[in-house]
Design a protein that fits this description.
The chain is an alpha+beta fold. The chain has helices spanning about 1-20, 130-135, 140-145, 180-195, 270-295, 330-345, 350-370, 370-395, 410-425, 430-440, 450-460, 465-475, and strands at about 25-35, 40-55, 60-65, 70-75, 80, 85-90, 100-110, 115-125, 155-160, 195-205, 215, 220-225, 235-240, 250-255, 255, 265, 300-305, 315, 320, 480-490, 495-505, 510-520, 520-530, 535-540, 545-550, 565. About 30% of the residues lie in helices and about 30% in strands. The strands form 6 sheets. The protein has an 8-stranded mixed sheet with strand order 5-4-8-2-1-10-13-12, with no helix packed on it. A 5-stranded mixed sheet has the order 15-16-17-19-18, covered by helices on one side. Helix 6 packs antiparallel against helix 7 (about 350-370). The longest helix has 24 residues, at about 370-395. Bound molecules: zinc ion.
């Protein structure tokens, strides 16, 4: 009998013990209180998190992870300490290449969809660490400009999940060297946390010296600075509700505050000229954004880097970008991007970020013409080209990522910028402006999945269902255009015509421009070529055609080497 019972117990435990479902729980709510001690590169956290069981089974064990340079101190439920085992867990989701994992045994099983609140405490240091990059062969001197997160007395900037797990996460191991594994794990995490609420109170005890540093965690942050002489502490509160695509990030430095609503501008001493380029670029950028997206009203913040080579980073409406150089072009497009966010909130990443990057390209066009804008967009093409090629080549194995729901940055930023650009080329400025004017972000997700399509179709009075299907609702890879045939001919009265047939070898259709070159000039027309189809049109010319070029770069294509067709003399 005794033996039987032991067997029973073992059977009962086996599923849980064998398979720790690390992604079973989503952290639906964070309420964290963080104390920074920059002299020691240290932080200490106390707070509450709410875990929701998003798996299909009851769960009794949860794996909570923080950066490997931090340590778990306490985990309590309803005021009572709960059992946990702390262990290192290798994962490139953190800059150190590892996590400190607390395997927590919950007092009771949590049923699917049910939640449990945990009081947590952890502390440790966050020094500069490029381990995960150096390990895959990136030279250290280079890696530190990308992996710049650290707490230090002179400059502190720490990004969240995907960079430094300074707040708890629940993820499977991610590996930088394994193709897309890291990005898949991070994208999955972000998708799970999209609706989560995040509250952060950040404080600095014992600010040294005669000056008080600025603490930042977002553009809308509420800050309190204690009266000088009484208490040297400062405190700032931030909230993201819901989190959306934001990566919670905090920054601390002795900034010079040159804010002018709605822009909060924080530069470092010695970077006055670079900061001035931002101040000077604000009015023209605001005027441009207002014309397209309405008046920017919410605050935006741009903060300087101590290392001028640090890669820029955006957390909501807080942009970290170096002001060491005077680059008025860059300052202009950075401001345009953030001002679009200020004017047009949306919980749809491809709308929120896509429109901001699209606006950057339009601003380039205003300053340098269409070609300058297309060159600028061209820099985005490489970001998603390879994954789209895989989707085109093996759609069964790589079903792709529909733009409407993706959490892949290269898609909701770079591909989305192109999609908005193509929509503008097809529908015209006035129709896109009207659609944007009517767009309401509130209750975004209660609206029909084709909400944006409906707005643009109504404004443009044109059916764009096929385009949204190929580019937004599905991921069908990219088009591949070439000139299938040309046929020059002349009327009895001597008027020159050319009949052009274009073929699209790809699985996504588009309206594409093509240019006919003739002696003494060129003429550009547009034509809709659906997926795996041809389209024919005829064009009247003032001279004899010698060349046809399809696509000026405004439609992202998988192959741009087959776009020129030379017409030999008859
Ligand atoms: Zn953005």
């Amino acid at each position: 009998m005794k033996l039987f019972c032991v067997v029973c117990v073992l059977c009962g435990l086996a599923p849980g013990a064998l398979a720790l479902e690390r992604e079973a729980f989503t952290i639906s709510k964070y309420d964290l209180e963080i104390r920074l001690e920059p002299e020691q590169q240290r932080l200490g956290t106390r707070g509450k998190i709410t875990l929701r069981n998003d798996s299909a089974h009851p769960q009794k064990v949860v794996a909570l992870q923080i950066s490997s340079s931090l340590n778990w101190r306490s985990i309590r439920i309803d005021g009572k300490a709960v059992q946990f085992v702390s262990q290192p867990y290798a994962s490139d989701i953190d800059h150190t290449g590892a996590l400190s994992e607390a395997i927590v045994t919950l007092p009771v099983e949590i049923k699917p969809k049910d939640s449990v609140e945990l009081e947590i405490g952890y502390e440790g240091v966050i020094p500069l660490d490029a381990t995960r990059l150096v390990r895959i062969g990136v030279p250290e001197s280079f890696a530190k400009h990308t992996s710049w997160d650290q707490i230090s007395p002179s400059f502190t900037a720490v990004r969240g999940a995907g960079y430094v797990a300074w707040y708890p996460i629940t993820t499977e191991s991610a590996d930088f060297s394994e193709g897309n594994s890291l990005f898949e794990v991070v994208d999955r995490w972000k998708a799970r946390e999209m609706r989560s609420e995040f509250k952060l109170a950040l404080s600095l005890q014992d600010a040294r010296g005669g000056t008080t540093p600025t603490l930042l965690c977002g553009a809308e942050a509420q800050g309190y600075s204690a009266e000088a002489g009484k208490d040297r502490g400062i405190r700032v509160e931030c909230g993201w509700s819901p989190l959306g695509t934001v990566t919670p990030t905090f920054v601390m430095a002795e900034y010079v505050d040159e804010s002018k609503a709605p822009l909060k501008l924080f530069s470092l001493p010695g970077h006055e000229a670079g900061a001035a380029t931002y101040s000077n670029a604000l009015d023209p950028a605001t005027k441009f954004v207002s014309g397209w997206f309405g008046k920017p009203s919410a605050s935006i913040a741009i903060a300087d880097f101590a290392d001028p080579q640090s890669a820029p980073f955006e957390s909501g409406t807080l942009l970290l970008a170096s002001m060491a150089a005077e680059d008025s072009k860059l300052a202009g497009i950075n401001l345009v991007h953030e001002l679009v966010h200020s004017a047009l909130p949306s919980s749809r990443p491809w709308v929120y970020e896509g429109l901001a990057h699209f606006a950057e390209a339009m601003y380039r066009q205003e300053q340098g013409g269409r070609q300058a804008a297309l060159d600028f967009l061209g820099l985005h093409r490489a970001a998603f080209l390879d994954s789209e090629k895989e989707v085109s080549a093996t759609p069964q194995k790589n079903p792709g990522q529909p733009l409407a729901i993706t959490f892949d940055e290269t898609y909701y930023r770079s591909k989305a910028a192109y999609v908005w650009w193509m929509l503008r080329d097809m529908a015209g400025d006035d129709a896109i402006k009207e659609a944007i004017r009517k767009y309401r972000a509130e209750d975004d997700n209660d609206k029909a999945p084709n909400y944006v399509e409906q707005l643009i179709e109504a404004a443009a009075k044109r059916d764009l269902g096929w385009f949204f299907d190929d580019w937004v609702y599905q991921d069908r890879g990219l088009p591949d255009f070439h000139v299938q045939s040309v046929h020059p001919w002349k009327t009895e009265k001597g008027v020159q015509f050319i009949t052009v047939t274009l073929e699209n070898l790809g699985n996504a259709g588009a309206e594409v421009p093509f240019t006919i070159f003739f002696e003494g000039g060129e003429i550009t027309k547009r034509i809709e070529v659906r997926a795996k189809a041809t389209a024919t049109t005829r064009v009247e010319l003032p001279g004899i055609a010698n060349k046809v070029v399809v696509n000026d770069g405004s439609v992202p294509e998988s192959d741009l080497t087959n776009n020129v067709f030379k017409i030999s003399a008859p």
